[in-house]
């Protein structure tokens, strides 16, 4: 109850800001992008879990101002990132289904001066469950603007292969639940390898999420997955703490 009451003010006063988790290119060991993840530091309660307040934001409509604030800050921060490094921002289905979503994103890009090609929007397949034609139309307009579109949490939910056929995703993010089993389960390795091969065949980049061990890095390298994200590479950190140097020995 406290959270709900304070969420609006927290958004307005900048208590909730994006932190960033790096993504690494497995071939070169270089940072190749970052994902923005909302973090709330409450003045007296300290850190409040994103998994806790995001559903409340979605249930109360505050997700619109929260989403806008995170997107704006992420685009502004990204202007100071090294050449070629873009930022990925999660877009909730509620934000996405607004009539003005394309205009709103265009406006943020204009206001912050971030070139569209340095922004990736991460969406989940829940968008496609209802009104999929409208969803595809919106995704197409965003992509035509130059924004990259990633399908997040792939492998959870229904993951109908038709989603891969219906839209030219730029990136597919394989859910952590598959990655965590890769060292011990040949079936998980086969699934991740097959998803990766299929995505590449379709011209889609693949990111493995939730990489926590060196063994997982090796297993992902072996199946040809080129981009890794997870605690093994780095936890989400404040913008000032982002490590841009090449990751040694990964
Ligand atoms: O980073 P973390 O585990 O705390 O995130 C929990 C969930 O909240 C994840 O599903 C993540 O995608 C989502 N999330 C984090 N930041 C944002 C955001 O800025 N916007 C939206 N819509 N979801 C976010
Ligand atoms: O839903 P989405 O994929 O956007 O959310 C990513 C979530 O996963 C964030 O909450 C982020 O903090 C979390 N995360 C990132 N890397 C790891 C990891 O290596 N292990 C675990 N358990 N969670 C991770
Ligand atoms: Mn995500
Ligand atoms: Na994800």
Automatic annotation (TrEMBL):
Which residue intervals define the domain EAL in the entry? 1-250
- Top-rank taxon, per record: Bacteria
Kindly provide the name given to this protein in its UniProt entry. Diguanylate cyclase
């Amino acid at each position: 109850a406290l959270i709900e009451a304070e969420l609006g003010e927290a958004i307005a006063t900048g208590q909730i800001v994006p932190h960033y988790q790096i993504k690494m290119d497995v071939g070169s060991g270089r940072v190749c992008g970052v994902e923005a993840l909302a973090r709330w530091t409450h003045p007296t309660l300290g850190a409040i879990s994103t998994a806790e307040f995001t559903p409340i934001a979605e249930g109360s409509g505050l997700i619109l101002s929260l989403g806008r604030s995170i997107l704006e800050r992420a685009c502004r921060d990204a202007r100071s990132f090294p050449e070629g490094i873009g930022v990925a921002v999660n877009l909730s289905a509620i934000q996405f289904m607004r009539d003005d979503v394309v205009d709103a994103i265009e406006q943020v890009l204009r206001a912050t001066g971030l070139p569209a090609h340095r922004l990736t929007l991460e969406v989940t397949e829940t968008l496609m469950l209802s009104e999929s034609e409208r969803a595809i139309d919106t995704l197409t307009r965003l992509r035509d603007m130059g924004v990259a579109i990633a399908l997040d949490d792939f492998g959870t939910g229904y993951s109908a292969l038709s989603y891969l056929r219906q839209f030219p995703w730029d990136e597919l993010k394989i859910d952590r639940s598959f990655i965590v089993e890769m060292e011990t389960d040949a079936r998980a390795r086969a699934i991740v390898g097959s998803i990766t091969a299929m995505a590449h065949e379709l011209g889609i980049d693949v990111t493995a999420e939730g990489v926590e061990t060196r063994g997982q890095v090796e297993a992902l390298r072996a199946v040809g997955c080129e981009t890794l994200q997870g605690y093994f590479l780095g936890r989400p950190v404040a913008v000032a703490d982002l490590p841009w140097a090449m990751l040694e020995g990964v």
